[in-house]
């Protein structure tokens, strides 16, 4: 740990002067992925280890904002070039096109069903959140007429008064 007056150079985020921030952040992300894979192997969860590692990052990062800041030097370039990560699965799908065509009906049901389920859950969540929000009546500035009042008149202006 650094002494109180000793500050690490910009971009190191407390990992030490000899370890670049991007390398340390990549080690953190890969370590969480490895931990997720280990947990999947030990528990037999039917989820990829990388997904469990991402959930671990989310859970630990929610409580410790410094962890998110330490992962950011590697996360930013990965997210910036995220579209490149879709190339290998796309090539794999094209090479297995006959297999996909053979199982097209169950795949279509799964895609349409998951879309419909997601839509229903999102709609139900929106409705529940809207019911919890305090109602803005016509008298409040956030009411249907908005802050300017009806027909663009200034607040407090009567029908015969100019704005």
Quick summary:
With 163 residues, this protein is an all-alpha fold. The chain has six helices and no strands.
Write the layout of secondary structure elements.
Blueprint: H1 21-43, H2 49-63, H3 65-80, H4 87-95, H5 97-102, H6 104-132
Helix pairs in contact: 1-2, 1-3, 2-3
Structure description:
The chain has 163 residues and is mainly alpha-helical. It contains six helices and no strands. Helix 1 (21-43) crosses helix 2, helix 1 packs across helix 3 and helix 2 (49-63) crosses helix 3. The N and C termini lie far apart (65 Å).
Helices and strands, in N-to-C order?
HHHHHH
Proportion of residues in helical segments: 55-70%
The count of helical stretches stands at 6
Extract low-pLDDT stretches: 1-9
Largest beta-sheet details: none
Strand content: under 5%
Query: What is the overall silhouette?
Result: extended
- Rg from C-alpha positions? 26 Å
> What is the number of beta strands?
0
Q: For the terminal residues, how far apart are their CA atoms?
A: 65 Å
Overall average pLDDT: 80
Q: Structural class of the secondary elements?
A: mainly alpha
Describe this protein with a few key phrases.
163 residues; mainly alpha; 6 helices; 0% strand; extended
């Amino acid at each position: 740990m650094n002494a109180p007056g000793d500050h690490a150079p910009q971009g190191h985020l407390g990992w030490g002067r000899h370890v670049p921030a991007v390398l340390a952040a990549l080690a953190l992300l890969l370590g969480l992925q490895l931990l997720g894979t280990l947990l999947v192997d030990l528990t037999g969860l039917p989820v990829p280890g990388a997904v469990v590692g991402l959930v671990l990052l989310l859970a630990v990062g929610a409580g410790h904002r410094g962890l998110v800041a330490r992962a950011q030097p590697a996360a930013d370039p990965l997210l910036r070039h995220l579209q490149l990560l879709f190339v290998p699965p796309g090539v794999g799908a094209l090479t297995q096109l006959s297999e996909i065509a053979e199982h097209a009906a169950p795949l279509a049901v799964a895609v349409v069903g998951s879309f419909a389920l997601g839509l229903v859950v999102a709609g139900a969540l929106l409705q529940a959140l809207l019911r919890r929000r305090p109602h803005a009546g016509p008298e409040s500035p956030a009411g249907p007429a908005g802050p300017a009042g009806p027909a663009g008149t200034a607040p407090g202006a009567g029908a015969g008064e100019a704005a």
